[in-house]
Amino acid sequence: xxYYDANxxxxxxxxxxxxxxxxxxxxNSTGALIATKVTSADGKYCFxxxxxxxxxxxxxxxxxxxxxxxxxxxxxxxxxTYGVVSDGHNFGNICLGEGxxxxxGFWSNENGQALITPAMLTGLNNLPLENAADxxxxxxxxxxFRNLLxxxxxxxxxxxxxxxxxxxxxxx
Length: 172
What we know:
The protein has helices at about 105-110, 110-115, 120-125, 140-150, 160-170; strands at about 1-5, 25, 35-40, 55-60, 65-70, 75-80, 90-95. With about 170 residues, the chain is of the alpha+beta class. The protein folds into two domains: about 1-95, Immunoglobulins (Immunoglobulin-like, Sandwich), CATH 2.60.40; about 105-170, no CATH class. A hairpin with a 5-residue loop joins strand 2 (about 25) and strand 3.
């Protein structure tokens, strides 16, 4: 599982959210890439129908911001005669962003809105952002993003307010 390690302790805690859309790679014992998966909406990935042997599983850190691994970014897995590894590895990260000093106010005004591209919205949709209802926040438009920035307060939900800050930091 890929998750956003909000408290930076390297452990998937109950309140921490999954990160979708992250590439996970599988290498064989010779170091050759043999499979690639992308984490699903619940942050999970799975490699099936593998032969017995030693494999390395690696995450590819998302681009567009400064992501730092809070747990190992690769691990070695040995499939023995039982051939089943049900207890996979959780990849934890924290995003430091590259906000370039641009604030919530900048991104919510017409100057910031003019700079937002569809690719930026896609990147934002891959972050573990919450709305006021404590649900995943996704952006179909610049207006959706602007509304998050302008309405996010700690009085309704601290995760909502933190999501506004993370979103602003993420954008370049």
